[in-house]
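This entry is passed on directly below:
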Amino acid sequence: MKNNYQQFYHCISAPFRHHSAALKLLRGVNLFVVWIMYFVYIGLLLWVIKTHPSILWKVVLIPGIGFIILSVVRQRINAPRPYEKFAIKPLIFRDKTGDSMPSRHVFSATVIAMCGLYFSISWGIILLLLAVVSAITRVIGGVHFPRDVFVGFICGLICGLFLFLV
C-alpha cells in the first residue's frame, strides 16, 4: 500500500509540481471553491429569509446538525492525513494532523450544493460540480485521501437529502 499510494500521489501531483502556474491554479481553485461556497450559503440564507422564511430552519438546522455530527465522527476516527502517513509533500499547505476522514470541506460544499438543489436544479448541479472540484483539489493537494473526500461527499448528499424528506 505504501508504495502504491506514494506512486499514485506522485503521478497526480507531478503536473502541478513541475509547473508553477498549474500549482497556483490548483491552490487558487481550492480557495475559490471554499470561499464561493461560504458566500453562496450566506446568499442562500438571505434569499430564504426574504422569500421562504418558514423553511429557514431546514436550511440552517439540517446542514448545521450534519456538520456537528460529521465533526464528532471524524474526531473519533482521527484518521491521519496523507502527508502524515506517507513521505509526501502536500501541494496545499496544512499543518493539521488527523481528522482526515471524512473531509469536512467536501461535506460542507456538498450539503450547501444540496441546499441549492432544493431550490434550483441548475444551481444545485453547478454547486455539486464545484463540490466535486473541491474533492479533486483536496486529493491532488495532498491533504486528503480519495476515500476521505468520497465519504465526505456521500455524507453531504445524505445530509442534504433530509432537506427533501423533512
Q: What stands out?
A: The chain has a mean pLDDT of 96.
